[in-house]
Design a protein that fits this description.
Length: 213
């Protein structure tokens, strides 16, 4: 039995993958003998196919580069890649240009501020429907609140037309108005001559006894 085991092991360990035929012969005592050469009385033995184990092949692993995070980068690298929060020179100039109001906007703002400073601008004399007999000088009084600002003036209007030059005072006079009906009004002007407010109008009647005058 031992020769059979040894023979089988030798066949299994053989480097060739081609399996040779094996023959078994027994003697008169029943002992088995094996050979790869056929002989009288020998029988061919069916052996199992040998198991072939291939050595594993080596697989090349491609290295993977890992991009370092901000936390793992050097301070100088983070500073170089992180965009600066400070505005550029061009951005600063654009911001300055946008922040500066245009001339029209500045004038509109000035007019609005000037108008808002005057809460009252009213014609208090002469009164509505007042009659003047033989009166060559007619006083005109206007109420302005708050008081006139420096540079602002009042322009009298008679029948819708400017009368005299603008004055920086609230007490004015009308001289030698022709007889008849007249509408008296006033306009408040700023220092550039632009109207700020217009007062109420009063209708007066002027009479003269002497027709020649």
């Amino acid at each position: 039995m031992i020769p059979y085991v040894i023979f089988v092991l030798l066949l299994l360990l053989a480097p060739t993958v081609t399996q040779a035929d094996v023959y078994e012969r027994k003697d008169a005592e029943g002992n088995a003998y094996y050979s790869d050469t056929p002989s009288a009385g020998a029988k061919k033995v069916q052996l199992p196919l040998p198991t072939i184990i291939h050595a594993p092949t080596k697989t090349k692993v491609k290295p993977v580069l890992i991009e370092p995070t901000i936390e793992s980068k050097k301070p100088e690298e983070v500073t170089a890649e992180t965009p600066s929060s400070e505005p550029t020179e061009m951005e600063a100039e654009e911001a300055e240009t946008k922040s500066e109001p245009t001339e029209a906007e500045a004038e509109a703002k000035t007019d609005a501020n000037t108008e808002s400073t005057y809460t009252t601008f009213a014609l208090t004399a002469p009164e509505e429907q007042q009659t003047f007999q033989n009166q060559r000088t007619i006083p005109v009084v206007l109420t302005v609140d708050p008081a006139l600002r420096t540079g602002d003036k009042i322009q009298l209007l008679v029948d819708g037309e400017p009368y005299g030059d603008p004055q920086a005072q609230t007490g004015l006079t009308l001289q030698n108005l022709p007889r008849g009906t007249h509408a008296i009004q006033a306009t408040l002007l700023d220092k550039t001559g632009q109207p700020i407010k217009t007062s109420n109008a009063a209708t007066i009647y002027v009479h003269y006894a002497n027709i020649g005058h």
